[in-house]
Amino acid sequence: MLLAPAAVALALRQKIAKDVTQALAQPDVKERLQRMEFDVAISGPENFEQQLRNDVEIFRKIAKQAGLIVR
Predict the structure, then answer these.
(1) What are the helix (H) ranges across 1-71?
(2) Is this prediction's pTM over 0.70?
(3) 8 Å CB contact between 69 and 60
(4) b/e per residue, 30-39, with b = 16+ CB within 10 A?
């Protein structure tokens, strides 16, 4: 997972995503990650933001049910 400050321009986030995707497609990189038992899921910046929001909401509900959040 790669994260950047919210102020980073979309164009730069898209370039980073493209460059990382290209790097992860290299056979030697894929092989090395597989040997370390990494599962790679590639998603662009647009999808990641929504997934992160969804995850935060899920964990907020779990914390509230456990009595960790009183809101």
Answers:
(1) 10-24, 27-35, 45-65
(2) no
(3) yes
(4) eeeeeeeeee
